[in-house]
Write a structure and sequence with these properties.
The chain is an alpha/beta fold and 381 residues long. Helices cover 44% and strands 10% of the residues. The strands form two sheets. An eight-stranded parallel sheet has the order 3-10-9-8-7-6-5-4. Helix 5 links the parallel strand 4 and strand 5. The longest helix has 21 residues. The two termini are 39 Å apart.
Length: 381
């Protein structure tokens, strides 16, 4: 098999190797999936200015995200069920990120636990927090994150209630997954995935089972998760979490300038312009379309990051040109993970790095920190 050259190559391979219910979980959006599709297609509308006869030597992609040095302004986004794309998926992704010199963010709804990442990777990482009704569980989870060496807390604000995702409903995706005939037949066509899962004990939500009250196994997990996302989440809760955590805080899920102003007032270190990968409010703006107004609203009072629809280094460059200080990739690395495990995540990051470097050069820039709107064609953004 030839080496994958694009994120799309990895997606096609992942679709062949990952069971349908878990591939669809990663590669789907809410309702009509209009916002999910717009996250990608809106990048294509933005055009780049090609420059010539400029010195393109000695280029650098080095930057910082919330004060942390990064090899390029890209982080692995928190994604639920990552360990179901590939056995021990979060461990493999964290290792690949560490090798690439970029941050890895573990999801609350991960298969591998905080302690798994700390024990098997041994390098600082970031942790994404969902706010549950059980505030005692949340307080203990934050303390576990501290003990695991987490250096930044990413607080997700846009999942107070779960958006309807039709593919998950049709596939019977639940905790545990429903053993329908269709799912069993599909699993039989994925021997590589099945063998990997048989070889690991990590097949449940590692941060929850055995830690949340009344959740000792998979059978009790489904009802707990269905009841626990807190629709009453508000800015007072953000303050409580900020005070309890005491470290770097990033607020994820900001899509409106008014909410961006609230994020500034909260004292958080950064915000992520995000629509949850198009998995929540279908019909919302794409992340890249929402980015400029939020950058204009907050200026340099808070660091602006973004995620949603990034499938290439060119997409990263366009987000930086429109004012983001860093970007997150979710599906792009999940495709790599599902396709080739840790090597696939490494391949994803290599593809994005090369595309970012070459595109930056062809736009006449040598330092990623010098990228701004001047590299874009006016009227296309």
């Amino acid at each position: 098999m030839s080496q994958p050259l694009t994120i799309e190559d990895l997606r096609v391979l992942a679709q062949r190797r990952v069971p349908r219910m878990f591939y669809d979980y990663a590669d789907s959006g809410a309702w009509t999936e209009g916002t999910y599709r717009a996250n990608e297609t809106d990048f294509a509308k933005i055009k780049l200015r090609q420059r010539v006869a400029v010195d393109m030597t000695n280029r650098t992609l080095a930057s910082t995200m919330i004060g942390q040095p990064v090899a390029m302004p890209v982080a692995l986004a928190p994604t639920g069920l990552t360990g179901m794309q590939h056995a021990d998926g979060e461990i493999h992704a964290a290792r690949a990120a560490d090798k690439a010199g970029v941050p890895f963010t573990l999801s609350t709804m991960s298969i591998c636990s905080l302690e798994d990442i700390a024990n098997h990777v041994g390098k600082p990482f970031w942790f994404q927090l969902y706010v549950m009704k059980d505030r005692d569980f949340i307080a203990r989870l934050i303390q576990r994150a501290k003990a695991a060496g987490v250096t930044a807390l990413v607080l997700t604000l846009d999942l107070q209630i779960l958006g309807q995702r039709h593919k998950d409903i049709r596939n019977g995706l639940s905790a545990p997954p429903k053993p329908t005939l269709a799912n069993i037949l599909n699993l039989m066509t994925k021997p590589r995935w099945c063998l990997g899962m048989l070889d690991t004990p990590r097949r449940s939500f590692g941060n929850i089972v055995g830690h949340a009250k009344g959740v000792g196994d998979l059978s009790s997990l489904s009802s707990w998760t269905g009841e626990q996302f807190d629709p009453q989440l508000n800015w007072d809760d953000v303050k409580w979490i900020k005070d309890l955590w005491g470290g770097k805080l990033i607020l994820k899920g900001i899509l409106d300038p008014e909410d961006a102003e609230m994020a500034v007032k909260s004292g958080a270190d950064a915000l992520i312009v995000s629509n949850h990968g198009g998995r929540q409010l279908d019909g919302a703006l794409s992340s890249i379309a929402a980015l400029p107004a939020i950058v204009d609203a907050v200026g340099d009072r808070i660091e602006v990051l973004m995620d949603g629809g990034i499938r290439s280094g060119q997409d990263v460059l366009k987000a930086l040109a429109l004012g983001a200080k860093g970007t997150f990739i979710g599906r792009a690395f999940l495709y790599g993970l599902g396709a080739m495990g840790e090597d696939g995540v490494t391949r994803t990051l290599d593809i994005i790095r090369k595309e970012l470097d070459i595109t930056m050069a062809l736009c006449g820039k040598r330092d990623i920190l010098d990228v701004d709107k001047s590299i874009l064609v006016k009227g296309t953004y």
